[in-house]
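Reader question, answered in our methods column.
A reader sent in the components of a multi-part assembly and asked whether the whole thing could be modeled at once rather than chain by chain. We filled in our standard form and ran it. Here is what they sent:
COMPLEX SIZE: two components
ENTRIES:
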Amino acid sequence: MPKVEYVLPSGERRVVEAEDGASVMQTSLNNLVPGIIGECGGELSCATCHVFVAPEWFDRLGGRSPEEEDMLQVTAAEPTEFSRLSCQIRCTADTGGLVVHVPEVQ
Amino acid sequence: MSTRSDRIVVVGAGQAGVEAAAALRMAGSGVPITVVGDESAAPYSRPPLSKGILTGTAQLAEIALRTDEFYVREGIDLRLGRAVADIDAAGRTVRLDDGDTIPYESLIIATGSKARMLPNPELRGAANVLTLRTIDDTLRLQEFLRPGARAAIIGGGYIGLEIASAAHRAGVETTILEAADRVLARVTSAPVSEFFQQIHREEGVDVRTGVRIAGFRTDAQGNVAAVLLDGAPALEVDFVLVGIGVTPRTELAERAGALVDNGIVVDKHLRSSIPGVYAIGDVSRHPCPQHGGLRRLESAPNVSEQARHVARSILGDEAPYSALPWFWSDQYDLKLQSVGLSATADTVVVRPNPGRDRKLEVFYLEANKLIAADIVGASADFAFSRKLVESKTVLDSKALADPDVPLRSLLAVASPA
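And here is the structure of the entire assembly that came back:
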């Protein structure tokens, strides 16, 4: 199972195992990683699963859809060029070791 | 049996119950937790049942609320396929239908709601009259979604419209029968109703409003062969989908002596009238922080918010429940997103969208403040609307009606410097 590393605002790092095909948002819920809410359940309706992808990983994840671009305009934490909605990132064999940073607010 | 226990028992293993248990663990609570649910499937998210699952863009495995390992790892005692038969409020225990008795310190009732059925006695033996609420309902409905099949969808609410769009896409000849003079009459404004009626008709669904159903003609097997209509020819059908709303599942709480009035009545901490007993989700009728009075909501975001709130309340947080309601609906390639409650609006603004006939933005103002919005095909504007409602910004309705004024700019003006 691919691993995902969540870096919390405190600097604490949580490494968890993801189900193959699960989203980074769902994986955080399954492992009680704080700071990712995912209020709409991955429907691109709430922008409460915002993460900053580690720069070296960003280009390896595929691009954002126009709907995701829209929702990234309204995140609670100021978005950066490495911002993604974690419900749109799938954990697969190719993403093993993925590192994402959890923002202070959602 | 009234052994003192610090256990939290949750009745209902839907989104409300499971998210409440998860929120307790997230907050660091290590007390024993038991979640009892009467469906046998692992806890799942309901909104996709009438959306992605029905259209085939989502799979059942994807809608599990948590992995099976989650419950084991977090020490959440999950009792599936079991119902709570009784609550002994004085002794603080629940008795399950298998006879097991579980003591509790706090009890969370998250029993949700059930689909309403038409009272007509001729429908009782009909195997082709369906409602949609559970995975089992969905699997049954999917068997009827065959090209060329003829469907009557009774009720033009969100569930009916979502199922109509999935059925039509599956090649079903679909007719919506709505008693009111417009679809979505109970839940939204006329411009939104007109928009969706137009969309469904453009797609090829027969949308009929102001319909009076006189009865049903059944065949030799007792299945419905036709819907009989006042003032119109009988509608021959292969199946009927009834989407006329839901009823909160309050029976258990009522028998235990809780105050029930179209839902289990709770206070701002989501506490029922029985000490130690809380109610959340569709079944809870709670004080409305925006408009006063009591309200009952049927939406997934409300479920999640209340689940997190009840966990905080149980752990001693005194903050009142204050979440702003929001909602979404998927039909065809369109996403409607709604925020707030529009009933008390004094002004309705429909923002023109030149050249975008599948986009809609309707704003509801009360005393020059945005209290609600219905947005189709503009997710970012929905999110801006949500912020405008939350910030209670004084707005110029002319600016809202001007498509050249970006919503973002209204928010920027409104934000405290």
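What stands out: Chain B touches chain A through 30 residues (CB under 8 Å). The radius of gyration of chain B is 23 Å.
Send us your own complexes using the same form.
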